[in-house]
Amino acid sequence: MKQEVELLKQKLKERGIIFGSHVGFREGAFSEILGDVGYDLVWIDTEHSPLGKGDILNHLIGARAAGIVSLVRVPWNEPIFVKNVLDMGADGLVFPMIRSVEEAQEAIRACYYPPAGIRGVGTRRANRYNLDDRSYYLDNAHDTFLKIMQIEHVDNLDSLEGILAVEGVDGIVVGPSDFAASMGKIKTPRDPELLAAFDTLGRIAKASGKIFGISMGFNEQNVKEWIARGVNWLNIGFEYQYVVSAASSTLNTLRSLAGK
Fold it and tell me: Up-side HSE of residue 199: CA atoms within 13 Å toward CB?
């Protein structure tokens, strides 16, 4: 297994929780900065961003330079895109909107070489351009990266336990906004029925003993609630939010100093 992934699992074992953040701008230095700041992992988002494959590679290079684990959220549960990202050497994948056991199984098959799966053979950067033993990689590639299912739909109240039991699934991460939307509650994030559903997800995920994460913007109350539900991975905040926050704060201070 890659050193970065091994270290991440060790941190999780020792601390009980790991910290990540999201990137969607094209500049790979943002991933490097997050690693230098001290985050444990970076979520490279290709579902809600303009990132192309070359941009993904730049982020992966930046992440490796800073020693931070790189997770790529693919646009959809689509084997061709999965194959490309794995060949680039990502430390893990996040599969969005996994609603059923069957969809989780499809995602896992895309990560395994035949006969267990359908991943095409083109090792490339994932095996250090075959500087590492290629035969060993072909036999063990599926153990060198994390396979995370994103839970974003009310259907998961019935399917989550089965998804977590699928062989090869390393964990899940909740997407609260889409989950709320699936319940018709996107504009009422404090709806008691929605919060109760999150509590149910938490009980199931925590009992599995696998990675249990939350992906969202920073809100102190929400973070505290998800910690109480048992998450061991907080993936919080986006680089654009950091830029907006710091730029706005600096400008407001300048206006105050200038008396404007």
Answer: 7
Total domains in the fold of the chain: 1
Q: What is the CATH number of the domain that holds 58?
A: 3.20.20.60
pTM above 0.85, yes or no: yes
pLDDT digits (tens, 9 = 90+) for 152-207: 999 999 999 999 999 999 999 999 999 999 999 999 999 999 999 999 999 999 99
Domain that holds residue 78: 3-257
At residue 46, what is the residue type? Answer: T
d(CA 32, CA 44): 12
Give the count of beta carbons closer than 10 Å to the beta carbon of residue 170: 18
Q: What is the mean pLDDT of residues 21-31?
A: 98
- Catalytic pick from 48, 59, 142, 153? 48
- Beta strand 171-174 with 211-216 is parallel
* Rounded CA separation 162/59 (Å): 33
Any catalytic annotation for residue 48?
yes
Alpha-carbon span 113 to 122, nearest angstrom: 10
